[in-house]
Amino acid sequence: MKIACLDLEGVLVPEIWISFAEKTGVDGFRRTTRDEPDYDRLMRYRMDLLNRHSFGVNEIRAVIEEMEPFEGAREFLDELRGRTQVLILSDTFYEFATPLMEKLGRPTLLCNELEVDERGVITGYRLRCRQTKLSTVKALQSCGYETVAAGDSFNDLAMIRASSAGFLFRSTDRIKADNPDLPAFETFGELMKGFQDAFG
Which residues are catalytic? Predict the structure, then answer.
């Protein structure tokens, strides 16, 4: 049995924090897992920046409500789900992702949770488990699944390499150069062909 594991941001939808940076004019929010491999360091940086500018979860949600999936993402996901089971594995948060999941046809999403106080201030976050994407892929494999994975960032590399096949999608030049053995695709058509070949 095979199962497809997909990253969310940068693959199916724009990066939430980059969209927030564009809306607020605070360029510091552009820093993502494409730039920073250490997720804890990245989130501490983001929370500090939010506090300095007096932004909370409500301001971020307002930006997310206006976001749309990438052109062709819903159709790609629908076609892939017609061929196999699909899991979205993301380091985003349920408090952010719900509107985007609606626009993608409610795929199954495994992600993290924010800690938010009564004023809407983000005070912390809870990861599902350590190395969330890799741990999930390994758990699926322990249940008899063969995983095929795709993502764009540093935090996707472990799940891609642990899978029987894996792909970079719209990744950075640096990540592609550092991982020349991984197939790198730029269009949903190419990515679908990669999954089709992997599933046989």
Answer: 7, 9
